Amino acid sequence: MTDAPPLLIAWHSRTGGSEALARAAAEGAGTAKLVAAADVTPDALQAAAGYLFVAPENLAALSGAMKEMFDRCYYPCLGRLEGRPYATIICAGSDGEGAQRQLDRIATGWRLKRVAQGVIVNTAAQSAEAILAPKTISAARLTEARDLGAALAEGIVAGIF
């Protein structure tokens, strides 16, 4: 895995919530590689030792851009990522469970190993205006993301995962 940072944080955000969470996780991780979903490549996934996927839930599913990243990278990475650790943060307007299940099914296909409980940040955005509005994530939830990033990076480097 040469000089690649051990943790790849792949994220997508339309209204800023997922991006803020991904950036907080990267800050906690220190040497993580923070990459927007549109820019994630199979080579970047293969070079990393573990993953944090951060995405919004849209209409009870992963956002289209995050799903497209998985669609584009799935087969080139199939059979090449087994056993690597992963965790997730979903930014949702309600329960976030649909996106979480979808992402876990993809990770199961790659044979990734979940090493932390999924984090779902509920913004309670229910009206069209609230859903489309820029999101502000509480300091407590940003700290949770920062701590998750730190724990993932430390666990990978220490060989725990």
Overall mean confidence score, pLDDT:
95
From N to C, what is the helix and strand string?
A: EHEHEEHEHEEHH
Low-confidence stretches: none
Number of strands: 7
Question: Helix coverage percent of residues?
Answer: 40-55%
Distance between the termini: 15 Å
Number of DSSP helical runs: 6
β-sheet strand percentage: 15-25%
Over all CA atoms, what is the radius of gyration? 15 Å
Category from helices, strands and their pairing: alpha/beta
The profile of the biggest β sheet is: 7 strands, mixed
Taken from the alpha-carbon principal axes, the silhouette is globular
Key terms for this structure?
seven-stranded mixed sheet, 7 strands, about 20% strand
Would you spell out the secondary-structure blueprint of this structure?
Blueprint: E1 7-11, H1 17-29, E2 33-36, H2 42-47, E3 50-58, E4 61-62, H3 64-77, E5 85-92, H4 97-110, E6 113-114, E7 119-122, H5 128-132, H6 139-158
Parallel strand pairs: 1-2, 1-3, 3-5, 5-6, 5-7
Antiparallel strand pairs: 3-4
Helix pairs in contact: 1-6
Task: Report on this structure.
- By secondary structure, the chain is α/β, with parallel strands linked by helices.
- The protein contains six helices and seven strands, in the order βαβαββαβαββαα.
- It has helices at residues 17-29, 42-47, 64-77, 97-110, 128-132, 139-158; strands spanning 7-11, 33-36, 50-58, 61-62, 85-92, 113-114, 119-122.
Short description:
With 161 residues, the protein is α/β, with parallel strands linked by helices. The chain is 45% helix and 21% strand.
